């Protein structure tokens, strides 16, 4: 399991797409063993930030450490440590849920025996055992979210980067997600989870980081205010100011 202190730290991150400054000075810390919410309106830079952390996008400036490594220098090799769950579903055609996970396991070069055992475990973890051998295309939205989460976990990563995982979930599925994220954090992972709706995450996250127009913002910082908050301590006033 990951060593203590192997969380996420980001300093002075910038990334532009043409004239659009998607990231315009992001500082962020996410602790190992905690669930950190990355909250901001649509277009605030959440997906861009997660892509940089996953080693899938090169920033223009700034420094990043993820689980003790630099994903910018490592590029795609950084995938070994990070589990990435995109905010869109893949087109899986006629693959079953199990086959989807086995395909990703093969991409991480897990041996077939290891992959089969892990995939069976993961299907149980995300409550998809009974649907494992049906085409993934017939799964409901919530079931697809769970498959996406299992996909992110297939190589047992130290860091989880989840883009809008609570989006569109019914209350029951949201509770399941909260329990699962808690367990993953308690196992010693770093969990960073984005949303444009704070209320989706307020029961789930230990800390929160806010993005606005590509910048980390500090609502209600006060003297000596940090960049990370207990989500439950946040006031409505702080959020409207933001
Ligand atoms: P969020 O995930 O918070 O909705 P994004 O990171 O997706 O925000 O986008 C931040 C800004 O960067 C938006 O203005 C978006 O249109 C722009 N952007 C993101 N990716 C690209 C891209 N590949 N090409 C051009 N503009 C992009």
Automatic annotation (TrEMBL):
Belongs to the ABC transporter superfamily. Residues 8-238 form the ABC transporter domain. It comes from Cellulomonas humilata. Keywords: ATP-binding, Nucleotide-binding, Transport. This is ABC transporter ATP-binding protein. The chain holds residues 17 to 258 of 327 of the full protein. The keyword Ribosomal protein does not apply. The keyword Ligase does not apply. One of its GO terms (molecular function) is ATP hydrolysis activity. Signal peptide: none annotated.
């Amino acid at each position: 399991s990951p060593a203590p202190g192997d969380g996420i730290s980001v300093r002075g991150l910038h990334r532009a797409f043409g004239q659009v400054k998607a990231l315009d000075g992001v500082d962020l810390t996410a602790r190992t063993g905690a669930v950190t919410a990355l909250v901001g309106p649509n277009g605030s830079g959440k997906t861009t930030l997660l892509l940089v952390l996953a080693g899938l996008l090169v920033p223009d400036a700034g420094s990043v450490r993820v689980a003790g490594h630099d994903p910018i220098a490592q590029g795609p090799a950084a995938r070994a440590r990070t589990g990435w769950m995109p905010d869109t579903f893949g087109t899986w055609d006629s693959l079953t849920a199990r086959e989807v996970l086995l395909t990703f396991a093969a991409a991480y070069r897990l041996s077939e025996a290891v992959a089969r055992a892990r995939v069976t475990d993961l299907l149980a973890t995300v409550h998809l055992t009974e649907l494992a051998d049906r085409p993934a295309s017939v799964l409901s939205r919530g079931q697809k979210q769970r498959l996406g989460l299992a996909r992110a976990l297939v190589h047992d990563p130290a860091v989880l980067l989840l883009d809008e995982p609570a989006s569109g979930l019914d209350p029951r599925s949201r509770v399941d997600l909260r329990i699962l994220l808690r367990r993953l954090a308690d196992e010693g992972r770093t969990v960073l989870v984005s949303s444009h709706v704070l209320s989706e995450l307020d029961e789930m996250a230990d800390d929160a980081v806010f993005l606005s127009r590509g910048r980390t913002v500090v609502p209600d910082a006060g003297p000596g205010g940090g960049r990370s908050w207990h989500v439950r301590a946040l006031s409505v006033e702080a959020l409207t100011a933001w």
